[in-house]
Amino acid sequence: MKMTFRWFGSTDDSVTLEQIRQIPGMTGIVGALFDVPVGEVWPIEKIAKLKKEVEDAGLELEIIESVNIHDDIKIGLPTRDKYIENYSQTIRNLAQYGIKVICYNFMPVFDWTRTNLAKELADKSTVLSYEQGVVDKIDPTAMLETFKSSANGFSLPGWEPERMATLKDLFSKYEGLTEDTLFDNLKYFLEGVIPTCIECDVKLAIHPDDPPWPIFGLPRIVKNEADLERIVGLVDSPYNGLTLCSGCLGANPSNDIPKLIRRFGAMGRIHFAHVRNIYIHENGDFDESSHLSCDGSLDLFEIMKAYHDIGFTGYIRPDHGRMIWGEKARPGYGLYDRALGVTYLNGLWEAIGKMAQVK
Ligand SMILES: [Mn+2]
After folding, report:
1. What EC number(s) does this enzyme carry (predicted)?
2. Do residues 20 and 10 lie in contact, with contact meaning Cβ atoms separated by under 8 Å?
3. Around 323, how many Cα atoms within 13 Å sit in the side-chain half-sphere?
4. Which residues are catalytic?
5. Can you tell me the distance from the alpha carbon of 202 to that of 102, in angstroms, rounded to the nearest whole number?
6. What are 298-339's pLDDT values in tens digits?
7. pLDDT (tens digit per residue) in 32-54
8. Where do the structural domains in the chain lie, given as residue ranges?
9. N or C: which terminus of the chain carries fewer CB neighbours within 10 A?
């Protein structure tokens, strides 16, 4: 595996490349261009600048999270062909600079949803949390306001103000869209871009829905094993792959994460691993916990063992962390707790590897 760390760029991240470089075992950055509007081609010059910046810091830039999909593609509007062509051109541009994997999601309107970005735990650390009762009652616009006021001044990927300004309009465009139509639209998108992926040797890796069930009446199609199976079958190519996010899929206790890793890993379809833990309450609400198995509901040892057993050589990142030690950062994306997560995952990996040799 290649240990990586998500970074939002020199102007919009409290964490520096130098700090990331000093985390033991760190090899690369999970980067993106956050100032290119969704649907537009990522310009060569901006990609080149990011690549140089990361490499000058002694790190690699081989994976992008995310190149977002324009809503017209997800809705299936006639204008989608133009956006699919733009996406293909972005793939070509990224390939020129050594990008190997592109993470994306296919969630209507919202990339991810939480009801509290700073829930205080018993140890006074704060975490992102989700309460279904709040989502059931709240208007999405009101949720956006809550997010803005508790994001410590940082932008939140997927909740960009420009896009959210048209929230009502977006919701009306998605009206009547079913899971089946969304699958059809994903297939249309994949059939459009996978030939370019093959030509450029860039693998796509779809991120699961967060949380993995429908919210605000919008359909979701990356929720469970059956969905993942359907997705990898839409275009039968290793370039049509997955980002296996343990914290997202794991929010539904019937998703057996180690089983999913073994199954789709054996098919060579997992290109990116997001590994984090969550604590699921009795009513199904959840908090993002520390990575340690005993702090959450997921067994991180079993998850890392599954990756080890499939001989995983792809990219991995600690995903989110708690806010600890007085750090002020983008919620979920501070330095300290994610660095602790990396060290824990590396520790599990080393132990599992050595134990396997003893046998
Ligand atoms: Mn994730």
Report:
1. 4.2.1.8
2. no
3. 22
4. 207, 245, 274, 319-320, 333
5. 7
6. 999 999 999 999 999 999 999 999 999 999 999 999 999 999
7. 999 999 999 999 999 999 999 99
8. 2-358
9. C
Give the count of beta carbons closer than 10 Å to the beta carbon of residue 113. 20
Tokens, residue 196: 């370019």
Taking residues 165-169, report their average pLDDT: 79
How many angstroms separate the CA atoms of 43 and 197, rounded? 18
Closest CA to 99 of 122, 65, 135: 65
β-pair partners for 111? none
Q: What is the pLDDT of residue 359?
A: 60
The residue count of the chain comes to: 359
Overall pTM surpassing 0.85 (yes/no)? yes
Please count the other Cβ atoms lying within 10 Å of the Cβ belonging to residue 143. Answer: 20
CATH class belonging to 2-358: alpha beta
| Tokens describing residue 129 | 């949390």
- 357 CA distance to ligand 1 centroid (A)? 31
Which residues are bridge partners to 119 per DSSP? Answer: 127
Average pLDDT over residues 268-286: 97
126: closest CA among 115, 117, 135, 139?
A: 117
Q: Ligand 1: distance of its center to the CA of 344 in Å?
A: 18
For the stretch 27-39, what's the b/e string if a residue is b when 16 or more beta carbons lie within 10 angstroms of its beta carbon? bbbbbbbeebebb
Helix (H) or strand (E) holding 203: strand 203-207
Average the pLDDT over 111-140 and give the result. Answer: 90
110 pLDDT higher than 70:
yes
